[in-house]
TrEMBL record, chain A:
GO terms for molecular function: DNA binding. It comes from Halolamina pelagica. Gene3D superfamilies: Nucleic acid-binding proteins. Keywords: DNA-binding. The keyword Cytoplasm does not apply. The keyword RNA-binding does not apply. GO terms for biological process: double-strand break repair via homologous recombination; response to ionizing radiation. This is Replication factor A1. The lineage of its organism: Archaea, Methanobacteriati, Methanobacteriota, Stenosarchaea group, Halobacteria.
UniProtKB/TrEMBL annotation, chain B:
It comes from Halolamina pelagica. It comes from the Archaea. This is Uncharacterized protein. Residues 178-200 are annotated as: Disordered.
Length: 309, 200
């Protein structure tokens, strides 16, 4: 979508409750100003908005997002800016606190960003995988990372079209507090295009099959505020644990039991801190890169924070 | 969905004697109410295992004392926590350990409520992990204290009703824990200069 089209869509959105206009109508008016009269796009938008305000007999401040600008998530680099977004809900997480109605990840072409909606704002719930125009959301910064907050004045409009989410990686960190079942040395279904993990030698789709061995770790990272489920695939599991598939098979053969592998692996993982990054798939972060956080901790910033309240 | 493992120092944890449920369903999770105004169904902590003892009669039942800069966590692991029990059996104190577990309370004959942890896992870690936990736990504690007066913070209201202690006390405890880390650092530096350790 061109910048002009984005603006046109946003304007059409803004007036959708008041006037029967389409994005094409708006585009036409914008194009006239921008192309024929050489008016800068911002000014053109303002002018077109004014025309529609007149037509709808509205004041500018009755229009929720009159002053906020449609931006992409990747452009957000300032705290407390009022903005509009066209996004898809990429992921919803469990709210860590009663005051939070929804928390999760929004995505657009430029990437993804955390969002929070507070219980007191009384907003309709966002559905995972659905695209929305959000107007009047406010940016927030915490220790250099940005998020957006929905608030009482935010308007949420479901979009017919799907917003494409840029393939960017999220980074999460925390203590590794659990290694989930289905970790370590596992067997997958060998059928074409089926990679389901077997339970007791059975695939839920293809029944009893001769599985193929694989390694993975499903773990939970927890920073005391949020939990993230993460999956290490064969390569990252080998790198993480120093145990490769051949060794794992040998361990299982020697013990006549595959569970010895995960038992051996988790002793060095549980209770340790990690930072991982990778794309989000469903409720999991698929780990592309990870770092064991075993450097010295710095109490100074925490002290400053503790003394500032 | 999985519950967050709260970060709480031993001094606050051991004061958190009130538990509650959020529904009448008997399988509903039980929460411990932290005096800084948060519910805890799971905790994560790192400290020094200083003692362990098998206090079971017929079956193994291990009690461990795990010390952080503010106090002592008591963990109990028996036949239903086989991995944690076997870790305690095999470990020689002192050792840095990380524990994920569920808060448990029980009332003693004289009416006091003792707070302990039923571990899901106990693993050996290093001093850097312990330090990271102290910093993180101080931050989370301070955040809870800072949010204590927030409108709509229902667990803070509950804590104000249930507990006498001023939540700011736990902020002070957190500051002390952080300052203690600084001093540890200085002491190490002194050692490398070949000077005698300060007498306690």
């Amino acid at each position: 979508m061109s910048e002009l089209e984005s603006h046109a869509a946003a304007i059409a959105e803004q007036f959708s409750d008041h006037l029967d206009i389409t994005q094409e109508d708006v585009e036409e008016r914008l194009e006239t100003l921008v192309e024929e009269y050489r008016v800068p796009l911002d000014e053109a938008r303002r002018s077109v908005e004014s025309q529609y305000l007149d037509e709808a007999d509205l004041e500018r401040d009755e229009l929720g997002s009159g002053d906020s600008e449609l931006v992409q998530l990747g452009e957000i680099d300032e705290d407390e800016q009022w903005i509009d977004l066209r996004v898809k809900v990429a992921d919803l997480w469990e709210p860590g606190h009663e005051s939070i109605a929804q928390v999760g990840l929004l995505g657009d072409e430029s990437g993804t960003m955390k969002f929070v909606a507070f219980d007191t704002s009384d907003l309709p719930e966002l559905d995972e995988g659905t695209s929305y125009a959000l107007s009047n959301v406010v940016t927030d910064e915490y220790e250099g990372s940005f998020s957006v907050k929905l608030n009482k004045t935010t308007t949420i409009t479901e979009l017919d079209e799907e917003v494409e989410v840029g393939d960017d990686a999220v980074t999460v960190e925390g203590a590794l507090v659990d290694v989930q079942s289905g970790s370590g040395l596992i067997k997958r279904c060998p059928e074409d295009d089926c990679t389901r993990v077997l339970q007791n030698g059975r695939c839920s789709e293809h029944g009893q099959v001769d599985g193929e061995f694989d390694l993975r770790i499903k773990a939970v990272l927890d920073d005391g505020r949020e939990v993230h489920e993460v999956i290490f695939d064969k390569e990252t599991t080998e790198e993480l644990t120093g145990i490769d598939l051949e060794e794992a098979k040998q361990m299982a053969t020697d013990a006549l039991d595959t569970t010895v592998v995960v038992e051996e692996m988790q002793g060095d993982l549980l209770g340790h801190y990690f930072e991982v990054s990778g794309p989000v798939f469903g409720r999991y972060v698929l780990v592309d890169e990870f770092e064991r956080l075993d450097g010295p901790a710095d109490p100074e910033s925490a002290l400053i924070k503790a003394r500032s309240i | 969905m999985r519950e967050v493992a709260r970060r709480v120092f031993a001094s606050e944890f051991n004061d958190a004697s009130h538990t509650f449920k959020e529904s009448d369903d008997e399988r509903a999770p039980a929460y411990q109410l932290l005096p800084t105004g948060e519910k805890a169904n799971r905790v994560f902590f790192v400290g020094t295992l200083t003692e362990k003892e098998d206090i079971g009669e017929d079956n193994e039942y291990w009690r461990g004392r795990i010390v952080d800069p503010t106090g002592t966590f008591f963990v109990y692991a028996g036949q239903y926590q086989p991995e944690a029990a076997s870790t305690l059996r095999d470990l020689d104190p002192p050792a840095y350990v990380a524990v994920v577990g569920k808060p448990r309370t029980y009332e003693t004959d004289d009416g006091n409520v003792n707070v302990s942890v039923r571990p899901e896992s106990i693993t050996v870690v290093d001093a850097a992990t312990r330090d990271r936990w102290v910093v993180e736990t101080a931050e989370r504690t301070v955040e809870r204290v800072a949010a204590f007066e927030d409108e709509g913070n229902e667990y803070a209201r509950m804590a104000a009703d249930r507990y006498d202690a001023d939540p700011d006390r736990y902020r002070e405890v957190a500051v002390e824990a952080l300052r203690g880390m600084d001093e540890d650092g200085d002491a190490d530096a002194t050692d490398t200069d070949g000077q005698a350790e300060p007498t306690p």
